[in-house]
């Protein structure tokens, strides 16, 4: 018998749509398999819900080993070959196909992952506003059919090749997990004073003395006038002295209405001991001398989509922060709206902090960032780089210290939600300024290596996926090995 071209409907029994009912998490007898339960490629039966209402003829909808279910909406075309089934029926957005005697179930299941199959799905859904397929369209999808004995050999060869790829992918995923742990350990060490030599230790080693803020200011004037002797040691300013200098500067340069109000210090009771020369502070204390230096985005009603324009002042939102790309996105407002929302404007060096879902994720705007405003899902933090390095603050926000603090304070159930009040209460470990810059340089160096390795790992994962398709292409072209 030669290879032939057949349709899915031609080698399967009559397709069947699933049962329509609501799902409940517990208390039922029969589980309800949904599209969302098969999209990962594996079914975790412990998370599959139960039917609120069982079908009157349960046997008609019961799943059996060897059944293939295909999604007709949502994740259109996603399929799953049922194995090790628990008492369950399938939901209405799934269509069941039962392979007939001329086709091996695993052979058909592997075809449903091939490029040829997905191209036919794409052809059937192109031009449709809400992509979907029906049983008739899936039944008409063509596939190359080998003789039954050869189908089994093809399946065995595919599984051998996939097993090797699975091992390689698992190894790559372990590397990614190790890189993630390493990055976390670098950031943890950075904000605990263990990544670089502390300014206190360096000052002792170099014979430098402690300096007051006034002496540092005077020394800075001498430096500007050329008064420092060549090779003279730089004075040592502690984090506590730096914080005092920041607060004094904020007080003298304050841009706001009414009497200046001293920013509240965070509650430091029960906090771990900091390295010598460090001090606890809050973002409100170290933000720049502007009333709106630490500001949440405008109310949603002030920034509806009907005010968006094709070009103008950029609207920054979570999409830029999540991607770590300030240039992403094309939402803009005109100048009049920009002036109206000037309290929410951002500039290079500002930190953008995500409030919802990816709570605490942060982006530092670079020098070439477009002028714009933040949307309601962000907080902006403006710092004076003469006192605190924005990159240090960003790394601190990405560290386990800030992450755990936010997790403990955030609300919103399954979706973590921060607010301005929570961000204001975060205790921030503040090292001396020179130490901040050394920390940033060392974190940059180490994380650049991490990014290089991650890029190589991701490239290899993409190659593995391409190899899977290559295996399938050869298999269904009559060349499995």
Automatic annotation (TrEMBL):
InterPro entries: Restrct_endonuc_typeI_TRD (IPR000055), Restrct_endonuc_typeI_TRD_sf (IPR044946), Type-I_RE_S_subunit (IPR051212)
Keyword list, A-Z: Coiled coil, DNA-binding, Restriction system
Gene Ontology molecular function: DNA binding
Domain Type I restriction modification DNA specificity: 3-179, 341-441
TM helices/strands, residue ranges: none
Coiled-coil stretches: 155-185
Alphabetized CDD domains for the sequence: RMtype1_S_Sau13435ORF2165P_TRD2-CR2_like
Disordered as annotated region, ranges: 202-231
Lipoprotein found in the keyword field: no
Alphabetical list of Gene3D superfamilies matching this protein: DNA methylase specificity domains
A single GO BP: DNA restriction-modification system
Top-level taxon in the UniProt lineage: Bacteria
Family (UniProt): Belongs to the type-I restriction system S methylase family.
Name the record gives this protein: Type I restriction modification DNA specificity domain-containing protein
